[in-house]
Amino acid sequence: MLVRILYHDHCFDGAASAAFFSRFLKDKFHPNASFAYTGMAHKASQIFEDDLFDGDENAIVDFKYSANPRLTWWFDHHQSAFLSKEDAEHYRQTRTPQKQYDPDFRSCTMFIATRAREQWGYEQPELSELVRWADIVDGAQYRDAEEAVSLKAAATKLTMLIESAKGSEVVQKIIRMMGAMPLDDIVADPALQELYKPLYERHLRSIDIIRQQAVCEGKVVYFDLIGHDLEGYNKFIPYYLFPESVYTVSVSLSSFRTKVSVGSNPWVTEPLRHNLATICERYGGGGHAKVGAISFPIGAVDDARKAAAEIAQELRGN
Ligand SMILES: [Mn+2]
Q: Which domain, by its residues, includes 129?
């Protein structure tokens, strides 16, 4: 019995969702199943290949819907959860308790934990720390920018490892550990410690680079990291450096895309006037009301910069 889980790769909530969901399925339905994981990334052209769904159960967590008939479980909380109107319609017409969508949840892990309790009477106290931190990390519920940037808590260290690790192997090792042990014990793993040290050095360097590159104008922080190797920098650095800012727009380059990131300061008290997912959707991107992103092909740096500049201008209210 194979359970295949497609999860949002390089995202703490994606990993925690996969870990919680695996434990739920194992405890409740399939005690002898083996679990296999596939990390999904938002790309400029996103498709689900049929051969992704090779399990006896096939699940997608914290990622977009697929109308593939082999999909048996789906949980997502992203505003932009459907690739097309046809997919959204397919979901509405074929929905079951095993396929659930609620964009009001801050984290997909909390969403799965809540539905598992309400609909299947499933509770797993061993994972309550994981669920609580997934909600803090994905919902940007840190006490302050310092907590998010200083990386003192185990969950914040794991967030950096998950976001910055090359490939999916490390993330999947962490997923398997998350389902079975406390976060502090995962971080103490010697192999993960080895990976963590250079990433932490890079994190400190990235604070300096963003400090040098960023401009804050009309409460919008703007920076361009093309030319700096900073895939997966900590998205709270701008608010740590510019506590008075409300929005951040950045352009960066990774191995597979040029990315425009649009975020909002979780610690400002003034109400946000813009829905960032809606803005990003206009450019083919998506996300949540408070944080969004647009993926461009590798070579489309000029297009990405143009979109980023337009969005920054819009957010400044000019
Ligand atoms: Mn999520």
A: 2-139
